[in-house]
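Notes from hallway chat w/ T.B., transcribed later so I don't forget. T.B. wanted the structure written out for a chain they're using in a teaching module, and asked if we could keep both sequence and structure tokens in one place. Agreed to drop them here.
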Amino acid sequence: MRSPCAPSQESSGDLHKSKVVGGSDLCRKALWQWVFTRIEPSRSRLKNDIGDRLGEIMDAEKLSGRPVRLIRSRVAAKAVKLLFKEFVRELVQI
């Protein structure tokens, strides 16, 4: 899995080699911030099914003694799957 600080694309022909901030980079950072601030701390978890499920996964993984970086990575991956299912469900209803 890539780090949220992964390098972004460089513009071709740019003499100063400035970085181009892309949508994927911003989405990846926002996802990590969401996991750090809304899922990991139990006091600020979402009060819905997704928050409950991801919180349970986070707590169970921490109790098992796994490394925190691995736990965050797994929770972020599970969050993307759950959120995508919810997104598709909403699109189908429209």
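Follow-up for T.B.: Confidence is low (pLDDT under 50) at residues 1-7. Might be a good example for the class.
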